[in-house]
Each structure stands twice: as C-alpha cells, then as structure tokens.
Amino acid sequence: MKRTHAALAVPVLVLSLGACSQIDALAPVGGASITTVRNATYDVLVDEGIDILRAPQCSATSSGFTCTGSTIDGNPIVSEAGPTTPFDLTVRVGDTLLFEGTAEEILEAAVLEAS
Amino acid sequence: MAYSDAVSLSRRSFIAGSAALAATWGISREVMARSLAAPLRAAEAPSTLLQTIRMSAQPIRNVYRTLVGATGEDFIERLDVLGRAAGASRTTSRRSLYYFAHLSDIHVIDAQTPARMDAIQSIAPDLFTDSCRPQDTLTVHVLASVVDSVVNSQVSSVTGAPLASAISTGDSADNLSHLETRWYIDVLDGKDVLANSGARDQYEGPQVWREATYAYHPDDPANDVYGPRGFPTVPGMLEAAVSRPVISQGLPVPWFTVYGNHDSTFMGTFRPDPGLAAWAVGDRKAVVGEALGVNWLQGYVSDLSLAQTGVNAIRQQLGLLPGVKSVTPDPERRLLERTDFMQAHLESPAVPGPVGHGWTQANVTSGQTWWSADLTPYLRVFGLDTCNLSAGADGAVPEDQFTWLEEELAKCQAENRLAMVCSHHNSLTLENDATPAWGGPRLVHAEEFIAMLHRYPVLVAWLNGHTHINTITPHVRQGGGGFWEVTTASCVDFPQQQQLVELVDNRDGTMSILVIALDHAAPPAWTPGDLSQVGLASLSRELSANAWLSKPALLAGSPLDRNVELLMPTPFELSTISDGVLEAEQMKSRAQALAHGGGA
After folding, report:
1. How many residue pairs from chains A and B have C-beta atoms closer than 8 A?
2. Which residues of chain B have pLDDT under 50?
3. Domains observed in chain B
4. Which residues of B are less than 8 Å from A114 in CB distance?
5. A74 part of a folded domain
6. What's the domain range around A76?
7. C-alpha span between B33 and B262 (Å, rounded)
8. Is 0.90 exceeded by the ipTM?
C-alpha cells in the first residue's frame, strides 16, 4: 500500500501542474547523455595525442549520437554512439579506428590514478 | 574608443595613484608604493597545473575509492574559434587584460531543514539525484576551502597579474533558504558560520534516522544503501559538522553573482507555495518517501483546493502525518520571497564588496533580477537571470532580458568595449518552455540566444554552470571568429572544482582566455579520523567521488574542458587599451590584495 502511494506521488504532482509546458519541464537537468558521449570522445582523442583544430561537436540522431570535428592537419574526426546507456562508442580519425567500446568505461578510467 | 592617452603610467601618475590607494585601504604610502612598484611575477601557487586529484586505482572496500594526488595537467590549446594554428611568439609577448575566479553551483545546504525533501530520493532517485547526498552537511566547509584556494591564487600563474574579482554563476544556496543564503554570503565575505539549524550542537535528520535507508549514516552505514558499497564509518562526523564554527578568511576580491534555479525555486524545480513555507519553519520532517507522496506532494499539487489544504494543515497540527519525525523548529529556516535573495546581498559589507554583488537597491525595488557592471573601463559583464519560475530545473532567457542584453551589447560594440555574459544555465539547458497559465514573456532558447551573441564580436565569453560538469564550448561564427562558453563544475558534487580565468592580449591579432580548473584547498586524501574543518572538506570530496547517483566520472569533464587556452581573433585592435590603463587597474587589485594580507 505504501509503495502504491509513493509510486503515485510524482505522477499526481505532474498531472496537477495543469499545463503541458510545465509537465515537459519536470525532467532531469538536460544534456547528460550527449555530454557523456562528447566527454568520452574527447578523452580518447587526448589519450591518443591527436592535434585537434575543431573538437567534435555532438548532436542527437535517429540512431543515437554523432560527433564531428577535424584535426589540425585536416583529417575528419567522427565518433558515433548508440542511443542508450551504456553508450556503445566508436571514435575515428580519418580512416583510423581509435576506439571501440563504451563511453562509460572511458569516463571511469579517466578519473582513476595511473595504475 | 581609446582608454588612455598614456602608453604606460608616468612616475607622477604612479605616485598619485599609489597614494590614493594607500589612503583608501589604510596602508602607509611607503608600503603601498613599494608593493606596487614590484614587477609582476607569475606565481607558483598550488594549482591543477602542478597537481590534480584522481580516484585510487583500486577500491579500498567493495567499490569505494579514496582520492590521491596525481600529476598536473598542462594547458591544452583550443583552436576551434581561431580556426588555425596559434602563433608561437604569443607566450612571450602577451599581456594580461583581466584575471578573475569563476565560481558556480556552490549549493550551500542546510541539511536539517524540514524543507529539504531528502526522502524523495527513495521514490525518484534518478529525477532528484541531489535531494540527499552523503556530503550534504559539509557544504559550508567546502566553500571555506574554495575561498582558501582563491586566496592562494591571487597572482596569475601565467602572467603574474593580480586577481581582480570573482564571479559566481548561481545556485549559491540549495533550496531557497534564508539560512543557506546567509551562510554562503558570510563565508564569501569572511565571516565565521556555524552550519547548524534547529537543535544546538546536534544533527537531526535522515543521516541518523534508521528508517532512512536511502541516506548515508556516517556513524554506522551498515544498514543503508551506502554500506554495501564500502562507504566509511566516520563516528562524530555529523556532530563535528554542526557544532564547530567554520572559519572563513573571505574572498580577497569583489564578487558578483546571479540567480540559479536553486536560488529561485523550491528544490530548484518547483514554485514555492505557502504550505512549503510553513513546512520549512515547522517541527516535522519527512523520513520516508511515502510521507512525501501522501502528504507533502499531495498538498503541493492541490494548492488550489482550499479544502485539501485545510485538511493537510489540520493533520499536520495534530501530528497525524505518517512517515514524519519531530525536529526542533527554527524560524531562520524560512524560505525566501522572490526579491529577498537580492536584498540579502545588499546586507553585505563594503569589503570585499561590492555591496549587492551585482544587484542594487533599484533591483530590489523594481524586481529586475539582472544587472551589468564595469569590471574595468574596457570590460563590462552582464549578469542574467535565466531561471524559470513556473517549473523545471532548466532555463531560458525571457524576451525582455534578451532585448535589454542585445541593446547593451550593441553599445559595447560601438564603444570597442569587451563584454562577458554570466548566467546560471548553459547552452545545453536553455530549453525550458514552461510558462504559467496566465502567460508571460516569450522565452528565448539557446539557438536564438547564441545567434544574437554572435552579432556582437566584443562578446568574448559566456560564463555559466548548472550541469555541474566542467565544459568548454566553442561558438564559431559563420565567416570567422566567435566566442567561448565556459561552464564550471560545482562545489557540492565531484570534483568540487571551480575555475581561474584570465583574458590575455597576445599582441599578434589574437587573444586567449586561459582557464584553470581550481581544486579547493583541502588535501586530496582524507586522513581517517580527521574531523577538523579542512579534514571535513577533504572528506566531502572523497564522499562525492563515490556518490554514484551524481555520475562523478562524467562531472570532471575531459582534459579539453579543464586547463585550456581558448584562442580567438581579437574583436578590435586591443592596443587601444593602453598599458597605462592596464597598470592602473592592476594597481587597484594589488592594493586590494595587500589590504587582504596577500602580496599580489
């Protein structure tokens, strides 16, 4: 019974706000997913010592996320990730595949001391 | 516009300026003159250029990791806006235009207030990840440690320029609280703060209530969700946090601030109502999520129903609310009305100042929550209020504010005056479209806002926060140039970093914005059992690194978001800002530092 009440609480709150725009606004702070993909891409590029002219800018696509940028010597940088966590990520510079794995494993490793 | 006829200060101007500053700060003329005559030297102060903080390679218990000092991170050049390689000679020819600290998302928390809905964590942990953190009682200690690190950074480690100001981009208090607001202002102003409310020398709240298994219980975490993850047993942590005053030396420079969503709305999301205001100063606090669901949230959403509101009030008076506990009431926990937050900043001393910290009495009177200030004769800053009072954590720029800013930027452009914009929300989070049923100004979102900023090349930087993630974003203008968006992390979540920012003229047709991630001064590794003020700040950072709900690994950002040199073409010929004007401005900042006890 108690759990039923708890589960109902947030929907009741949302419905009672009365305006669609207010319901839409009750979401977590925006940008976490796209930033996860972006940051993991940047970590890979820095780890690989890539000289970047334009750091990849990321956007949501129908299949997840795509980030594009360029190196100082004119090669394209492309990373792609799926739509859901854990984000399956590939990072390429020109024809070279730099990384294939999950964005989360990159981020977790980046905050650890060198082992 | 030329800012001075002199190339650099004449001897006569130096003596006159030095004497005036000596009188202003009550320091002897000789001491002031000797100090100001010393050449600028780059500082070797502690910074992330020399040492960073990382998580231990191996967990010490289950998945719990401690923190360790690690090698520093050098500057990385960001060329996105410049669009070409940087000139090598710039590092020897450049001069500092302005050096300041960027603070954001301080989130000072009164962890015991009934208005803090900790228990919502048990029913919506992913929606309200910040409703109950393990380090909630330690935010004042962290802020004092941030102040220490700013004091340690009074001289630029690149150019030797003196720190001139600090700019905070909102979410200074956590929950619309008078007490939280007072605590944060007092710490920045250099007053001691006892981070306690309610019962004297005693913590009352979910971190000691056994039923609150969603909360970290430092005295014995075995039965909460933190215990199995290896969080430490720290007996006495809560008592130490609430029973000993936090000593703050205060910021050594004038500081400015803007509204954040947590300074504007309840939990940073909901508009407050009279029921919430009464709850905040009352003697009941929810201990389990069900109590919120049945009582508080139902009361909140039925605020148009007088009958339901009355029923709730009677039930509360009779103590019939299930899942709540008695706590010691405290009238100081009152929620702020809309303009109270600005008024609190006017109740601040002249030093470090400025009184109002961006706002003036006119703002309080008119209700206008945005401001502008001339940091120097050649640099103007605009403080926006991007918060949505209807609903939601994210924001937008109301059209009246948007129009005002565009007019002001046009003036800066006509006068060849550099400009920076400060707001709480960033370009990823200016998308809130919530409007009250009775309407309101049109809300401008990120794309339109950025397009407007691009029309004014004197706008070189947009400072903000909100996401708690170190983030650097280039905004490249079609046809060349653009500006940089600089987003800092928070004081409450890992990595508890802020920023040092310096605008420099490279004297080769380019300028740079140097950004350094700033760790607070407490040691990277917490010594078990250390419950001193600094020890608690250190412990807070360690706890935050393990607080998985906030995604700590994401919040640190990438190396391209931390210690960076952000290059761009100059928006006008910067030699029109003479060395004499720069020297005069730096003399003011050095005198200020001298008065604070530093030797910039």
Report:
1. 165
2. 1-2, 4-6, 300-306
3. 51-569 (3.60.21.10)
4. 57, 70
5. yes
6. 32-110
7. 45
8. yes
The reported pTM is 0.93
**Distance from C-alpha of B35 to C-alpha of B598, rounded to nearest angstrom:** 11
Residue A13: inside a domain: no
The pLDDT tens digits for B341-370 are 999 999 999 999 999 999 999 999 999 999
Residue B7 is given by DSSP the state S
Q: Does B294 touch chain A (CB under 8 A)?
A: yes
Q: Do A22 and B293 touch (CB under 8 A)?
A: no
- Cβ distance of B56 and A6 shorter than 8 Å: no
- B68 interfacial to chain A (CB closer than 8 Å): yes
CB B536 within 8 A of CB B111: no
- Residue A21: inside a domain: no
Q: Which of A1, A35, A42 to mutate to test the interface with B (most CBs of B within 10 A)?
A: A35
Does the distance separating the beta carbons of B124 and A35 come in below 8 Å? no
What residues of B are in contact with residue A108 (Cβ under 8 Å)?
553
For tokens 């019962």, name the residue.
Answer: B199
Interval B33-73: pLDDT, tens: 988 888 888 877 889 999 999 999 999 999 999 999 999 99
pLDDT at res. B39: 81
**A82 assigned to some structural domain:** yes
> How many structural domains does chain A have?
1
Residue B92: Cβ-neighbour burial (10 angstroms; 0-12, 13-18, 19+): exposed
From residue B551, alpha-carbon distances to B68, B229, B556 in Å are 19, 15, 10
Residues of B in contact with A34 (CB under 8 A): 428
Nearest to A32 among B392, B554, B559 (CB): B554
